[in-house]
């Protein structure tokens, strides 16, 4: 259910951003707002509290955000509060950001390696990703996982390329177990 909520509201925000020609600006604004909300957990508690009337929450949104964030974002926040979806705001913003990044040709890759890569190796990975995908730019997040033994695992969206030694050994083990002797 939460995934459906984030998708519906994230797509709605994306449509507004595209219609108004400000997708990148609104994406950056939602990221900044997310940081602010994370830094102010008391505001989050107030907005999620079931005992506070919806009208009072709408008034708080108006007072806190009007003039500080874009009108599009303020109005969106009011809709989210009205429909009692404030608890899904983080997931909505994440889905919206994903849509904007995809539409702008901006990819995100998660790279796991057994050892830390050098600056040159990281640049080579980035260049290879750009060559083999349709993205114009990439944010690449690196993670060291010694259990991989060697090689790397790259995840871009729902695609995974696993060239780790650990996986190759597991595959070899399965093949050897399937061999019937005599």
Write a structural description.
The chain is α+β, with helices and mostly antiparallel strands and 182 residues long. Helices cover 60% and strands 14% of the residues. It has 2 domains: 2-102, N-terminal domain of the delta subunit of the F1F0-ATP synthase (Peroxidase, domain 1, Orthogonal Bundle), CATH 1.10.520; 107-178. The chain contains 8 helices and 4 strands. Strands 2-1-3-4 form a 4-stranded mixed sheet. Helix 4 (54-65) packs antiparallel against helix 5 (71-82). The longest helix is centred in the N-terminal third of the chain and has 18 residues, at 2-19. GO terms for molecular function: proton-transporting ATP synthase activity, rotational mechanism. Belongs to the ATPase delta chain family. This protein is part of the stalk that links CF(0) to CF(1). It either transmits conformational changes from CF(0) to CF(1) or is implicated in proton conduction. It holds the Pfam family OSCP.
Task: Tell me how many strands there are.
Answer: 4
Strand composition percent: 5-15%
Classified by CATH, the class of the largest domain is Mainly Alpha
The total count of helices amounts to: 8
Strand order of the largest sheet: 2-1-3-4
User: Helix- and strand-based class?
Assistant: alpha+beta
- The average pLDDT value, as a whole number, equals 94
The main sheet comes to: 4 strands, mixed
Radius of gyration: 22 Å
| Shape by Cα distribution | elongated
Instruction: Give the total of domains.
Output: 2
- CATH hierarchy: architecture of the largest domain: Orthogonal Bundle
* Order of SSEs: HHHHHHEHEEEH
- Low-pLDDT residue spans: none
Q: What percentage of residues falls in helices of 4 or more residues? A: 55-70%
CATH T-level fold name of the largest domain:
Peroxidase, domain 1
Instruction: State the CATH superfamily name of the largest domain.
Output: N-terminal domain of the delta subunit of the F1F0-ATP synthase
Distance between the termini: 54 Å
Keywords: ATP synthesis, Cell membrane, CF(1), Hydrogen ion transport, Ion transport, Membrane, Transport
Pfam families: OSCP (PF00213)
InterPro entries: ATP_synth_OSCP/delta_N_sf, ATPase_OSCP/dsu
Function: This protein is part of the stalk that links CF(0) to CF(1). It either transmits conformational changes from CF(0) to CF(1) or is implicated in proton conduction.
């Amino acid at each position: 259910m939460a995934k459906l909520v984030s998708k519906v509201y994230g797509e709605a925000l994306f449509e507004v951003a595209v219609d108004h020609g400000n997708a990148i600006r609104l994406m950056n604004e939602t990221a900044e707002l997310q940081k602010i909300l994370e830094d102010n957990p008391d505001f989050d508690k107030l907005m999620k509290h079931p005992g506070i009337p919806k009208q009072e929450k709408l008034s708080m949104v108006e007072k806190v955000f009007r003039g500080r964030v874009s009108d599009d974002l303020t109005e969106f926040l009011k809709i989210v509060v009205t429909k009692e979806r404030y608890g899904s705001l983080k997931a909505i913003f994440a889905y919206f950001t994903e849509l904007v990044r995809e539409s702008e040709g901006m990819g995100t890759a998660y790279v796991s390696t057994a050892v830390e890569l050098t600056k040159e190796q990281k640049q080579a990975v980035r260049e290879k990703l750009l060559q083999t995908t349709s993205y114009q730019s990439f944010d690449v997040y690196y993670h060291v996982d010694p259990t991989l033994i060697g090689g790397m695992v790259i995840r871009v969206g729902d695609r995974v390329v696993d060239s780790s030694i650990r996986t190759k050994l597991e595959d070899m083990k399965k093949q050897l177990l399937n061999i019937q002797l005599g």
